[in-house]
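[step 3/7] fold_predict: job queued, chain A
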Amino acid sequence: MDFLLQLLISGIVVGSIYALVALGFVLIYKATGVINFAQGEFLTVGAYVCLALVAQLQFPFWLAFLFTLVVAVLMGMLIERVALRPMIGEPIISIIMLTIGLSSVLKGGVMMIWGPNNRAYPQIFSQVPIHVGPVVISQIYLWSVGFAALFLLIFTLFFKFSSAGIAMRATADDQQAALSMGISVKKVFGMAWCIAALVSAVGGILVGNINGVNISLGFFGLKVFPAVILGGLDSIPGAIIGGLIIGMLEAIAAGYIDPLVGGGMKEVIPFMVLVVILMVKPYGFFGTEEIEKV
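[step 4/7] structure written:
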C-alpha cells in the first residue's frame, strides 16, 4: 500500500503538468478548431530559455521564470501573427500540417542554439524530502503540483470572470455570433496561442527541474495528447481530469507492469488508453458530441 501511495503521488505530480500543457491544446482547439502539434516544442523552448537565464546569465530563478513567461507570450503572439493568421479560412488539414512543420522548425532552432546534450537545472529547490506518514515526497514535487494548480486556477477564473475570457468562450461557441457582438476573433485567436505557449513554458520549466532538459522534451507534448482525448478536446475541466488520470496510469504501469515485461509500458499505456477511449467514447468523457442533421 505504501508503494502504491508513492506511485500515485508521483503520478499526480506528472499528471498536474500534463493537465497544464493539455490546457494549451484545448484552448487552441476551442478557439480555432485546430490541433496544435507544436505544443511539445513550446514546452521545450520554455525549459531551455529558463535554464539559459539561470545557468548562463545567472538570473535568480524567480526572475528567470517570469522572463520566460514573457518570452513564451511573445513567441505565441509572433507565431499566430506570422504563420497562423494568414491561414484563416484555409482547410483545417493545411493548418494542422503547418503546426507539424512549426514543430520541426522550433526543434531545429533549439538544436542549433543549445545542442542535443542533456542539461540539468542548478539546484533551486531544497533536496530535503518531506515525510507524510510512510510516504516520502520530494520538495520539487510539491512545488510542481503547487505551480500547476496555481496556473490552472488562474486560467479557470480568467475564463469564467474576465471579459477577455468570456470573449474567448463566446468565440469558441460560435464565431459568427461573436463577430456580430463586436468581438475581434483575430485577437481571440492570438490570445489563445499566447496562453497555450505560456502554460507549455511553465510545464517545461517544471519538467526540466524534475528530469533535466534535452531535445526529446518535445515528446512530452505528444504524451499529453491522450489526456486531451480522454477529457475531451473542447473541455477545460476534462483536460485537468484527463491529465491527472494519465499521470497516475503511467506511474502505476511503471511500478507494477514494467518490472514484469522489462520496461516500456509506461510510455505505451497512454496511447493504449487513447485507442480504447476513441473506440468507446470518441468525444472523450467531457467533450461536446457533434450531431449532424441530414
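[step 5/7] annotate
The chain has a mean pLDDT of 84.
Residues 2-32 form the longest helix (31 residues).
exit 0
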